[in-house]
Design brief:
Shape: elongated
Number of strands: 3
Strand content: under 5%
Number of domains: 1
Structural class: mainly alpha
Number of helices: 23
Keywords: Membrane, Transmembrane, Transmembrane helix
Helix content: over 70%
Distance between the termini: 33 Å
Radius of gyration: 23 Å
Length: about 600
């Protein structure tokens, strides 16, 4: 029994040491993850928070003024009509748009780099980052499959978000001890958990076999792997995908706590958080890749996947870390200053008489700040999607090619992808399908009110609580299935999108159940462990910028490593699951 339990975590061990096989690739990838993770909080601390503080001070002044007095109206009018407030709103809008734009892009890049780094390294290649990029650019390694898979995953995620937003309108805000609403909430949460993993594995699959497995086919492949082949490992991957960010997140909040008292400390903590966050993200992607490869092939040599091609995994890991760092840095530098300025302004508005001219003026001055924040948020979402896609592609193809015996450098891998010799179609379709499912699950989650919104009507044994619990499990499972599905689309060009996810589901739930459970744990535990460092780094944002940046860098490195590991694990899981005859007999392959 102990041996069986240990076997479920074998792919995590392989994904963990995968970057050591190709440090010249994973190091820059991890750095990229860390930098991106650092930039996000940096933008918040440097740009958003000052704006929010300024607005907050103004609002405080308004709140401390008698609403019936003439001074209150003057303060409100001043707050709404001054040119300064208009400029703050414009800056906030620009920052929000930039965040929604840059975020998705960076997320795509991070996924591509991490997944291809993990895939190629796991397959035996030893690309450097430049070599992998050159292979991707030249088309020798195709980006079509992973890109399609990532796009599908993104579409599904968006659909899930829309469904979640519609949940409250459908439910009507009513709940009871045996409410159906609670059941729906639980199911939605479980579905989200499962889809997250399936999306990861699906993208890894599309990277491993981009010509045959991409989009929905890759997600279907990941679904088969997680639900049939490597169920236990898939569960482990789900846990890793969700627990990793949970652990690292507190560090981000802690770092933000220092944003006003010591900017150096805040930046140092943010740097540590960014490093951890990037490592966690990279680990998750690597784990998904390894999970996929092991589920598809069941090779023992996959235990040290990153060490087999360090020249590829090192820059991929660096990329993961840099992106994670940049994400946190942006929050500290841009978002947090705006938020602080708007907060001070809002306090002034609240302290002003709503009937006075000053109130109107202050309100108008606050609008530009909100607009700028909206622009920043939009930009972050867009950039995150793009960077995530790239990270998945790189990590999954790195793991796939390495596991298959290739020893690409990052430049060589990128050349292969660009030249089309390694197809990105399958992984891209699978990722798109996974994103679509994620969007749909988010929408469903939004439609299910939380117990806090129920007015205290929920009970210990309420159906609502049961639904919420089930929804969490479904989300965990889907995370692993998605990881394996993308890995399927990367390995098999014929398997993409829903087909890859279905394949991943079969592997995880039927063929490799134990390994799938382990993959679930990896997918959720990794981010959970790294997340607290991010909050800790943000606590130094105002007290010590140097400390905040250092902590964010560490967080970014750890986060990138975790992401890369998750993708590599998903790829290995797929390969090992598909290599054994029992898997071939158990699955209806794409």
């Amino acid at each position: 029994m102990a041996a069986k339990i240990t076997a479920c975590f074998t792919f995590l061990k392989e994904a963990l040491i995968l970057p050591t096989l190709n440090p010249k690739l994973f190091a820059p990838v991890l750095l990229f993850f860390a930098v991106t993770a650092f930039l996000d909080p940096l933008v918040h601390v440097v740009f958003v928070q000052p704006l929010g503080d300024g607005m907050a001070s103004r609002l405080t002044e308004i709140n401390n003024t008698d609403p019936s007095s003439a001074e209150y109206g003057k303060l409100v009018e001043k707050f709404m009509e001054t040119e300064e407030m208009k400029q703050v709103g414009k800056r906030m809008l620009r920052i929000t748009i930039a965040q929604f734009t840059v975020g998705p892009a960076l997320g795509l890049v991070k996924q591509i780099l991490a997944l291809f780094a993990a895939s190629t390294t796991y397959s035996g290649d030893r690309y450097s980052l430049a070599g992998l990029l050159s292979e991707l650019v030249s088309g020798r390694i195709s980006l079509k499959g992973p890109s399609i898979t990532i796009a599908v995953v993104g579409a599904l995620d968006f659909a899930g978000a829309v469904l979640a937003a519609l949940r409250y309108h459908v439910m009507g805000g009513r709940s009871g001890v045996l409410s159906v609403q609670g059941l729906v909430s639980l199911l939605a949460h479980l579905a989200s958990l499962c889809f997250t993993v399936i999306a990861l594995v699906g993208v890894a699959a599309s990277v491993a076999d981009s010509r045959k497995c991409r989009g929905v086919r890759a997600l279907r492949q990941a679904w088969r792997l997680v639900t049939r082949v490597r169920r236990k490992e898939g569960l482990v991957l789900v846990l890793v995908a969700y627990l990793g960010p949970t652990v690292v997140a507190p560090l981000h909040r802690f770092a933000l706590g220092y944003s006003k008292s010591s900017m150096a400390a805040c930046l140092c903590l943010m740097a540590v958080y960014a490093l951890l966050s990037g490592a966690q993200q990279l680990f998750s992607l690597a784990a998904a890749t390894v999970y996929y490869y092991q589920a598809m092939e069941n090779k023992e040599e996959a235990l040290i996947l990153p060490t087999l091609n360090p020249k590829l995994f090192a820059p991929v890991l660096l990329l993961f870390a840099v992106t994670a760092f940049l994400d946190s840095l942006e929050d500290v530098v841009f978002v947090q200053p705006l938020v602080d300025d708007m907060g001070s302004r809002l306090i002034t508005v609240n302290s002003t008489d709503p009937l006075g001219a000053e109130y109107t003026k202050l309100t108008e001055e606050t609008e530009p700040g909100g607009t700028e924040l909206l622009l920043i948020a939009v930009s972050e979402v867009i950039v995150a999607l793009a960077v995530g896609f790239v990270k998945k592609i790189l990590a999954l193809f790195a793991a796939s090619t390495t596991y298959s015996g290739g020893r690409y450098s990052l430049a060589a891998l990128l050349r292969e992808l660009v030249n089309g010799r390694i197809s990105l179609k399958g992984p891209s379709i699978t990722i798109a399908v996974v994103d679509a499912f994620d969007f749909a699950s988010a929408v469903l989650a939004a439609l299910i009110p939380t117990p806090a919104l129920m007015g205290g009507l929920s009970r210990v044994l309420s159906v609502q609580g049961l639904v919420s619990h089930l929804a969490n499990h479904v989300s965990l499972c889907f995370t692993v299935v998605a990881l394996v599905g993308v890995a399927v689309s990367a390995v098999d060009r014929r398997c993409r999108g829903m087909r890859a996810l279905r394949q991943a589901w079969r592997l995880v739930t039927r063929v490799r159940k134990k390994q799938g459970f382990v993959l679930v744990l990896v997918a959720y535990l990794g981010p959970t462990v790294v997340a607290p460092l991010h909050g800790f780094a943000l606590g130094y944002a105002k007290r010590s910028t140097a400390a905040c940046l250092c902590l964010l860098a560490v967080h970014a490195l750890l986060s990138g490593a975790q992401e890369l590991f998750s993708l590599a694990a998903a790829s290995v899981y797929y390969y090992q699951a598909m290599e054994s005859k029992e898997v071939i007999d158990a699955l209806w392959l794409c």
